[in-house]
Design a protein that fits this description.
With 271 residues, this protein is an alpha/beta fold. It has two domains: 177 residues, FAD/NAD(P)-binding domain (3-Layer(bba) Sandwich), CATH 3.50.50; 83 residues, FAD/NAD(P)-binding domain (3-Layer(bba) Sandwich). Helices cover 27% and strands 28% of the residues. The protein has seven helices and 16 strands. The strands form four sheets. Strands 1, 2, 3, 4, 5, 6 and 16 form a seven-stranded mixed beta sheet that branches. α1 packs parallel to α2. The longest helix has 24 residues. Bound molecules: flavin-adenine dinucleotide (FAD). Flavin-adenine dinucleotide binds next to α1, β2 and α7.
Amino acid sequence: MVYDVLVIGGGPAGLSAALNVRARGKTALVISNPLAENPLWKAERVDNCLGLPDLSGKELLTVLYDHAVSAGVEFLEARALSALSAGTDWYVAAGDMMTQGGAVVLAAGAVRGKKLPGEAELLGRGLSYCATCDGMLYRGRRVAVLGYSPSARREADFLEEIGCQVLYFDRPKSCAIQGTDKVEAVVCDGETEAVEGVFLLRSAMAPGDLFPGLEVEGGYVRVNREMATNLPGVFAAGDCTGGPLQISKAIGEGQIAGQKAAQLLARKAAE
Ligand SMILES: Cc1cc2nc3c(=O)[nH]c(=O)nc-3n(C[C@H](O)[C@H](O)[C@H](O)COP(=O)(O)OP(=O)(O)OC[C@H]3O[C@@H](n4cnc5c(N)ncnc54)[C@H](O)[C@@H]3O)c2cc1C
């Protein structure tokens, strides 16, 4: 799937960025978890969004989504798992798909919660963030699924279907992953279980895990006034760049990021 601009995150920032890419005649794909999984969906009432008074979070997100889609924005319901650049393009793995774009806008919202003990050390050594991507490596083996996202149970069912022995932990309060060179066990809420693989399924990933080398400060992506990050062709907008964590700020930053991404592509095309 090849687009001019890939947008990661379908909240106010991402939808605004994609709309503004379309307004400049470029194609835009928003890769996002389902709209209904956005934390804002549950807000009873949003009162400080200019021109959109008295809406619930669900109504507001639906209005923004419908506007973007009516302008020709495409929406891929999937979790973005990794991004890498080759030449002047970016490739983003989303669910079991590979997407390609000339520029990327990261609008994945604020990441809540810290890394688990053992997570950084054992990532790629038995620890995976994606059941559908890596599940086949663990057929016939005992694995733990740490389910922190609404779709985690479905991903655990998939692992069972392909023959993994799955221990499912539903939003464990405390959790650690143990192993020397590879995963050997998980300790969840005081219970230790020997496993060969761990699937840590969250709705969001830390920006630096998605984009290796991305400059992050205090958990937020560093951007300049054009919403450009330190990585060529990568822009960021919304809560992921820092406070105030508010809708109007996210929409405004999304607009700048979308415009600047489209301008970058126009410059590249003219070279
Ligand atoms: C209950 C509640 C009430 C609120 N009330 C208000 C209010 O009244 N006024 C106000 O201004 N603000 C309010 N906010 C804050 C507001 O929701 C945020 O500031 C705003 O939504 C930020 O927009 P965003 O697009 O940057 O991020 P988000 O809206 O968080 O959108 C990011 C999206 O990206 C998705 N995502 C993340 N990582 C990935 C990935 N790897 N792959 C695919 N998708 C991914 C997320 O699931 C999410 O859908 C409220 C927030 C909550 C939770």
